[in-house]
Amino acid sequence: MSTPHIQAEKGQFAKTVIMPGDPLRAKMIAEKFLENPVLVNEVRGMLGYTGTYKGKEVSVMGSGMGMPSIGIYSYELFTEFDVENIIRVGSAGSYVENLNLNDVVLCEKAWSESSFALAQNGSTDEYTYPSPRLNEKIQQAAKTRNKELTTVVVHSSDVFYHSADLDYLPTVRGEKGCSVVEMESFALFHNAKVTGKNAACLLTVSDSFVKPGILTAEERQNSMTNMIEIALEANLL
Known about the structure:
Layout: E1 16-19, H1 23-33, E2 35-41, E3 48-53, E4 56-61, H2 67-80, E5 85-94, E6 104-111, H3 116-121, E7 127-128, H4 132-144, E8 150-156, H5 169-175, E9 180-182, H6 185-195, E10 198-208, H7 217-222, H8 225-234
Parallel strand pairs: 1-4, 1-5, 5-10, 6-8, 8-9
Antiparallel strand pairs: 2-3, 3-4, 5-9, 6-7, 6-10
């Protein structure tokens, strides 16, 4: 059964979907890491593929940028296509000195000023949470492959370009405890909760608010191998 946003039929998505924001990154993951990937969605250019990794079926699909976009795709995957697990793989900006470019972090909870959860079902929760079991699998996969993984609180922001005179770091870093910022995990975790499914979020540090350094768009698309391999290996457990 296709939807207005996803053209696939039931059974064409695996139980686990690896979900980058950029559909071109989804294409790269499918072509580089999956055996026999099949294109199952291209509506609005939001590319989705299903194949196998080390013999186990897995899908990869873009989410777009921001909570409204991942909110639509994750909800439809959970409710219409029998997907059980979504692992977001994305980029993040660091709020703290001890994180460096290309460090991989795992979200333990997400804080947001967004009204997404309130608008979706009236929730006033300040934080949303990943699936503990899925996070355990991710941590186990990272340990097995000797890849470093730091657990963090994530700020899921509705805004990419803040006013220059707005100093929000003392609140989100200090009061809320956030170490990195991205734009999707709060909504993804909320959708997993309301649908009874599982979600997790792995991020690679692509830039910093507190020290110099930034990955280019091409580097973001192609250099996040560690994070992708951890997500794919977690699906084997």
